[in-house]
Request: fold
Amino acid sequence: MSQERIIQVERDILSKNDGFAAENRAYFAANGIFALNFVSSPGSGKTSLLVRTIGDLKERLPIGVVEGDQQTSNDAARIRETGAPAIQVNTGKGCHLDAHMVGHAVEELAPAKNSVLFIENVGNLVCPAAFDLGEAHKVVLLSVTEGEDKPLKYPDMFAAADLMILNKADLLPHLDFDVGACIANALRVNPRLQTLVVSARTGEGMPAFYSWLEANAAMAVTRALAKAG
Amino acid sequence: MSQERIIQVERDILSKNDGFAAENRAYFAANGIFALNFVSSPGSGKTSLLVRTIGDLKERLPIGVVEGDQQTSNDAARIRETGAPAIQVNTGKGCHLDAHMVGHAVEELAPAKNSVLFIENVGNLVCPAAFDLGEAHKVVLLSVTEGEDKPLKYPDMFAAADLMILNKADLLPHLDFDVGACIANALRVNPRLQTLVVSARTGEGMPAFYSWLEANAAMAVTRALAKAG
Reply:
C-alpha cells in the first residue's frame, strides 16, 4: 500500500472507533457508570492494582472489569476471585482494545447502574493511546522498575492519560529511581497530569487512589442523575 | 448589621473583586503572562519556594513577584536578592490580597511580555480562597509539619486550588506525616487536584514543579500569540 493509502486506512479505523467510543460514553453517562481505561507496559502491575482496589472497596463501590489480553483469560480469573464480575477480551494479534470490542464486552458484563468499570487494556505503552474506548479517563501505570524516562519516550500515552500511577513504590529503597524526575518528565508532556505513588503489593499510597476514584465516581453518578432529572 | 445585610455586603465585595480579577486576567492573557496565586498557612515556605524557583529558573524564564503581607516588606526584599523584580503589597488589617490591589501592583511591576508572575498571598488558609486575583491557577502550599487533615479542615482552599505542593519533604523521616493519606484527603475535596512533594530547602522534587511551571507558562505564551495572530 502507498503511504497515502495507509494513512487513509488508519484514519478510517480511528474514525470508526470514535463512533463506537461515543456510543459507549453515552451509555456510561446515562447509567452513572464511571469507566477507567488502564494502560501500561506489560508487567507494571495493572491486574494487581485492580485486585487490591476491588478487595478494599467492594463493600462500598460496585466494580466490574473488562480484561484485555492477546491470549489467555488468566487476568479475568484473578479478578473473579475477588468476587467482582469480569469479562475477558482476547485481541489475538491485536495490540490494543478498541471501542467496538469494549461495547460488546460491556453488553455481556451488564454493569450495575452507578457502578465503576475498570477496563484493563493490553500491556502496551504505544497503540492504546490512540484508541478512545469511551472511558472517563485513561489511567497510565508505570512501575518504578521501568525508569524515569518513559514519559519522554512514550509521550502519546502520558499525554492521553489524566492520571499517572507510579506503582511498586515498595521497591524504591532498592532502586535508583528518582520519583521527582519521573514526575517532571511526565508533566513536561502533560502539564495537567495528576500523579500518585503507590504499591499495589503493600497497599502504601492506595488510599489516595481510592479517594480519587470515589470522588470521581460520585461525580459521574451526580451527572447522570442531573441528566435524567 | 443584620445577617442579610452582611451577606449583601459580602456579595458586593466579591462581585466588585471579580470585575477587577477579569481585568487582570485579560491583561495577563493579552501579554502571555502566566500568573500563579500562592496560598498557604503562615510559615509553610511560600517565599523560600519562590526564592529557590527564581534562582534555578531565572536564566530561562523571566519571573516577577507580587508579595502580599499584612505588614513589613521583608519578603519582597528576599525576592529582590535573587535579582527578580518584586512589589510588596501591605494589606494592613486585610487578611487576603484582592484583585484591585494586585492590579495596581502589576501596573507598578510592569512585568515583561511572556513572563511568569508569582503572587504570594497573605499567609491564611481561609479568606484568600474566595478572592480571584485573575491568576491562571491557585497553588496551595502545605508543609508536612502541618498535618494530613488540613485539606479536610480547610476544604475551600483545596477545592479552589489546581496544584497542591507538599513542602518540607526533607523533614518526612522525622515526622509521622502520611503523604498518601494527605493526598487522599485533598483528592476527596478536589478530585482534579494535582499534587507534588518537594523540599524548597534541599531542592528535592523541585524539578517536577519546574516542569509543571514551564509547560504551563509555554501554553500561556502560545495562547497569547494565537489571540494576537
Observations:
- The radius of gyration of chain B is 17 Å.
